[in-house]
């Protein structure tokens, strides 16, 4: 049978290549695997979210047969509302994942306007020319799957985020039989999670958390506050079981925490033990040693419940001595400082805070080196494209794959936008699309581009100086000004700074009034004023604030 | 004997209370312990360094008898040039520390203008009413000491940064005998390093690094680049020994690396093995497998040697396949992302990078919980003021101190500026000085205050919009404008954004021309323009850029 080229194209996400979204292309047809968002990097000033490039997806939307989702975490479903706002394409996901997507679509007023198709593990699904086989994996959320995508040109496997949890809290252990079967049938290419390839050994089972919670909470005389990701349904379940065991009443606090738990409970993926979960107002009527709050804020996000408690800003919950706060998460790189400050503030209010490494109150949802090797040995792929890590993780994955016998040349290290083709020649990059990421800034999607970001960085370093001067259109002489306004540069209300600006004004006046050899043109005058001020300020302070002349001719 | 009150006042440093500088007060006399700087936190936009409050020190300079320094790391000596620029007071330090201070004074053209007095461990030194007894401790730099400060009111001990390294690379093990002796004589108060109080057990000896380097470097076929702090003399020494053993020629690269090593070598704290250390230009003539470079840049600082190599910007050193880069340091909280990016970029250039947790190429210079307990048990202080940690560390230290029998009420958790008094009543806060920290921004010391920082944060989030309009002074009608300039907000060269600004101009025009009930005052017009634009932009985009009206009346 003659086949068409089979390709994958990692999209969006910054740093973590292909984690948030990857396109699979067979002939004319496309299938998108996951549609997640990423939190912005430090230097993306004023940016709230980063999502995959929408314009590229719009360009190819006629060829896009569907979006298949591995699991319900933000970094795999968070971009869906933005994509579905402009593209009408069916989304396929397992039951809990569909539920969590529904919450998002409702928020963005898209519910009912887009097709959401339920997937069942091990039930084959035909989507265009793709035979999609979802298989169960274990992760820190129930109902997570990977995909074997069968095409006439061969099978591509996406692991999704996974660990091999032999004692998962919800559902059966990982589906080794199906994985082995897929492996025996032959895997052309494996696109594997490699986030945790730096860690030797195995990641502990999620179940160890329950014991840790138990040990901490058993004899506590006061209130307990457990903070974790709102999408970490498994963690929340364990907290609920521990609460029930120790007779504590639980309130779920934070909008995403409430919404996610409600839908997970409705779909029977989150079991509310009898007489345990209450509204916050009701829980507050119980004695403190019978109370547990489960809140958002494990990353120290300023508007989250825990941060507001820590800064004394939460309307209903005041931290106090006797409280014990358990931070059941590790900071995502870049959030260490805000998390540390949250802990410090809670301790200042007299609360006890338990966090890693003080106690084992968090385990990763990603497999360590031995688990990544196990996945490779179950599937025995011909080619590998590690897709869920930053570049150093991809390099380490290639080295680890060679330990289990995959030749180095069969492991391709992709960058975002690479078009990677699998065929008889091997695995290779055949093209590259300039797909960027889209920065979401408040409600503007993609309104912030490189120019705007660069300006923000400049403004944030040294602030801005505005020179305003009004000139006579015919004579070129000064009618009003120059005035110099400083913001984020120096504080003109202070004496020394005021003198600096006074002197700067004098220099600008001299520059404008300097006799010119020829008639002075407007553009020339603007540059002259700008240079005069920039040079003077640099000489005096070694700083380079943004200088904006506003010259009006009347 | 009647005594005067004995007090300590933790100064400067952000977050880490008293790490960088602490004042000791006995009667009218003051002694400053350490004068370090801190690297700025994430939201301190445009700030390079943070140093203790200079104006407060200037106020009390008549009473200040001296500055005593525990060891030569940046966070303990880095503020000295700024302090000594305005205050003439003698500085006391051990030999290597004096050498490293000399390097700084030279850079700031203060050498020879200030008194630098050598201290010898265990030799008592009289400084005003203070009997200062330096005692040897082990840390990641040689010649580190702690201080027992004897006064008529009792003895205060500063541990300085310490670990109990039983097999230090340079010099004898920690001076247990002296510590025990000081303890037996009686310690009123202990001000202890508690940075690593979160870690159980003991911190490994610095010496383990040499074995790790040996194992990695033994059979490497290419060039080796080792990156660490320029002040980590002990680490550099081990790299030199390993290089010599494997016949590699070493170049020290980076200004601070070269300067620090030169002075440490001159003072016999850093041994250059024969035929090992060369200039970079000379080393480049050797085959790659006979070369080792030791560079700065372990924190991913953009201008450091390693970052420039990683981004392909270093004039003389180009990273390539076959190179092995060893990152012998862990990122300081807040630097994780830039360090990760440096690793990614080096790997993109084909270099191998070895870092924690891939290999044990770094150990901390601070003692873990068992060592902190050992210090407490050697000294048996009456009162404790943990001073080298963030607030949560202080809380954990108090709990740990109670494990070895120090009553909780005898451990005081201080904030910067607290005046802490030790007397028969106990330990207590008797006063608080509003001492801040000084932000160093380029060459301006303290030119950046809260107002300026807040403006920078605002600018960095949503950028700035400037409205310029010229009005007729008598009629109030518009002569020129309104013009709207956008920077860091939206990109007006794009179509949609241009229309937004066009519409905004129209709104401002209407607002100005709106018939007013009474005569319109200038200030009123400015607010009206500002509100009109802010409201319109917020309604359209949900963003709140800084709005600056420039209204000229002619």
Report on the architecture of this protein.
- 2 copies of one chain form a homodimer.
- In chain A, the strands form 5 sheets. Chain A has an 8-stranded mixed beta sheet with strand order 7-6-5-3-2-1-20-21. A 6-stranded mixed beta sheet of chain A has the order 8-9-10-11-12-19, with helices on one face. A 6-stranded parallel beta sheet of chain A has the order 15-14-16-13-17-18, with helices on both faces.
- Chain A has 16 helices and 26 strands.
- In chain A, a hairpin with a 6-residue loop joins strand 24 and strand 25 (478-487).
- Chain A has 3 domains: 6-201 and 364-445, Ribonuclease Z/Hydroxyacylglutathione hydrolase-like (Metallo-beta-lactamase, Chain A, 4-Layer Sandwich); 213-354, Rossmann fold; 463-553, Ubiquitin-like (UB roll) (Roll).
- The model of chain A has no long low-confidence stretch (mean pLDDT 87).
- With 554 residues, the first copy, chain A, is an alpha/beta fold.
- Chains A and B meet through helix 11, helix 13, helix 14, strand 24 and strand 25 of A and helix 11, helix 13, helix 14, strand 24 and strand 25 of B.
């Amino acid at each position: 049978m003659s086949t068409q080229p089979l390709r994958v194209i990692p999209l969006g996400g910054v740093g973590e290549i292909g984690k948030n979204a990857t396109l699979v292309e067979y002939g004319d047809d496309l299938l998108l695997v996951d549609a997640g968002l990423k939190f912005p990097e430090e230097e993306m000033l004023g940016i709230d979210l980063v999502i995959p490039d929408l314009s590229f997806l719009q360009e190819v939307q006629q060829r896009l047969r569907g979006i298949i989702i591995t699991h319900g975490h933000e970094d795999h479903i968070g971009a869906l509302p933005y994509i579905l706002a402009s593209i009408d394409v069916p989304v396929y996901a397992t039951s809990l994942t569909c539920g969590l997507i529904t919450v998002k679509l409702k928020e963005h007023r898209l519910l009912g306007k887009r097709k959401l198709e339920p997937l069942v593990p091990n039930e084959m699904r035909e989507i265009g020319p793709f035979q999609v086989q979802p298989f169960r994996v274990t992760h820190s959320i129930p109902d997570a799957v990977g995909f074997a995508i069968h095409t006439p040109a061969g099978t591509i496997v996406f692991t999704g985020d996974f660990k091999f949890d032999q004692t998962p809290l919800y559902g059966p252990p990982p589906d080794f039989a199906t994985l082995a079967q897929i492996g025996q049938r032959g895997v052309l290419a494996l696109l594997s999670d490699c986030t945790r390839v730096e860690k030797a050994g195995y990641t502990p089972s999620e179940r160890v958390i329950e014991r840790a919670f138990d040990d901490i909470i058993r004899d506590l005389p006061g209130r307990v506050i457990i903070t974790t990701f709102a999408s970490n349904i498994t963690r929340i379940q364990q907290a609920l079981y521990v609460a029930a065991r120790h007779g504590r009443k639980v309130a779920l606090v934070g909008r995403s925490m409430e919404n996610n738990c409600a839908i997970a409970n409705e779909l029977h993926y989150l079991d509310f033990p009898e007489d345990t979960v209450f509204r916050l107002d009701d829980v507050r009527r119980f004695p403190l040693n019978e109370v547990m709050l489960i809140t958002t804020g494990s990353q120290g996000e300023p508007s989250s419940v825990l941060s507001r408690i820590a800064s004394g800003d939460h309307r209903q919950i005041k931290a106090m001595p006797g409280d014990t706060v358990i931070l059941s998460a590790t900071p995502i790189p870049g959030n260490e400082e805000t998390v540390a400050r949250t802990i410090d503030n809670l301790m200042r209010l007299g609360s006890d805070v338990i966090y890693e490494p003080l106690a084992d109150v968090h385990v990763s949802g990603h497999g360590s080196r031995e688990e990544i090797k196990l996945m490779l040995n179950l599937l025995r792929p011909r080619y590998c494209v590690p897709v869920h890590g930053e570049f150093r993780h991809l390099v380490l994955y290639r080295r680890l794959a060679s330990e289990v016998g995959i030749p180095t040349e069969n492991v391709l290290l992709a960058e975002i936008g690479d078009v990677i083709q699998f065929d008889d020649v091997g695995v290779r990059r055949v093209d590259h699309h300039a797909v960027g990421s889209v920065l979401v800034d408040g409600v503007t999607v993609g309104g912030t581009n490189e120019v705007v970001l660069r300006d923000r960085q400049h403004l944030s370093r040294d602030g801005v100086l505005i020179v305003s001067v009004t000139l006579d259109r015919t004579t070129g002489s000064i009618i009003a000004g120059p005035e110099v306004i400083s913001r984020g540069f120096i504080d003109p209300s202070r004496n020394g700074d005021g003198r600096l600006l006074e002197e700067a004004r004098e220099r600008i006046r001299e520059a404008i009034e300097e006799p010119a050899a020829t008639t002075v043109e407007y553009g020339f005058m603007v540059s002259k004023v700008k240079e005069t001020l920039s040079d003077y300020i640099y000489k005096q302070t070694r700083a380079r604030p943004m200088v904006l002349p506003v010259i009006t001719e009347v």
